[in-house]
Design brief:
Blueprint: E1 6-9, E2 19-22, E3 32-33, E4 41-42, H1 45-68, H2 73-96, H3 101-123
Antiparallel strand pairs: 1-2, 3-4
Helix pairs in contact: 1-2, 2-3
Length: about 130
């Protein structure tokens, strides 16, 4: 798969519609929010590293849950832990940078979605559309 392709994520999204996750590596350390849109906000180096590590952990957990099937408590625990880590990484970015209100709202939404997913995996509720 190329850098622009995505993979379906089980149990994510609204109304049973699966969400997608990138299959490429995270953006480089100097990634800028809103590149090309006139907004020049750079996440701190530490926040970027934390975010990248969390997404690598999430990718491994996602692959584990995809291979293990429903009801595997080890895979569910890994996915919950990884989802909490991604949510925390998103929230750290909001404290490490000055962002416009709409970017903060988007980051809060992303963090909330990962927290919700983490709770679902902790409860064992990982059905499509939950």
């Amino acid at each position: 798969m190329g850098h622009d392709q995505v993979a379906r994520v089980r149990g994510a999204g609204r109304d049973g519609v699966g969400a997608t996750r990138p299959v490429s590596d995270p953006p480089p350390h100097d990634a800028r929010l809103g590149s090309g849109s006139g907004i020049d906000v750079t996440a701190s180096e530490k926040s970027t590293r934390v975010w990248e590590a969390a997404y690598r952990q999430y990718g491994r957990a996602w692959e584990m849950t995809a291979r293990s099937g429903k009801g595997d408590p080890v895979a569910a625990r890994e996915m919950a832990t990884a989802s909490w880590a991604v949510a925390a990484a998103w929230r750290q970015i909001t404290t490490a940078t000055t962002l416009p209100w709409w970017a903060l709202a988007a980051i809060e939404s992303a963090a909330g979605a990962f927290e919700s997913q983490a709770r679902d995996y902790e409860k064992g509720d990982t059905s499509e559309g939950s």
